Model the fold of this input.
Amino acid sequence: LPVRGWRKALRRRWTDRGWIVPIESKRKVRARRDVLVNHALGDPHGMGMLSLMMHNAKVEPRSQFLFQNLRKGDVCIDCGMNVGIVSDMMLHMKATVYGFEPHPKLFTFLKQKYEGNDSISLYPQAVWHTPGEMKFHINSNEDEKLLDWSQQASLVAGAGREQFEVEAIDVDVIDLTEWIRAEILPRHGEVYLLKI
Done:
């Protein structure tokens, strides 16, 4: 290694696939997390807490402006809420949230989580381009952590879930476009954010 710039040379190296830039050191990651936590504690109802929430949810920097520009009363629709991480960010910015989660156990969890919150409406349905009933494929091994097994659910059979025991259940499906036309547009006029 050359004497000058040896640190930079250690950080980047050329391989047959191109430049390899190693993952940040644990110390840098910890320092950035500490800054985010300090900002969140200093600003628990504003952008400091939102920044920490986006960091924890691994929101890509190019998508963060969607949450930062939310205003009170903006309408957001969360299709496939899972445990409500994205909805939490929307609610933090005082948005009006409509959430869909067809997984029966997750829907029960979400009802308890958001009980008494008038800013969110929950629907135990899946969204599709036609209404009706469909098979919803879920991980039948619920001995794992909630986040692990809950992220394995899909209307699409297979979908990279071959390593899990999959069970198919029938769920109600709504036509999302028609639902927005009938329920949201007459009441609110527009939708700010649609997360699918």
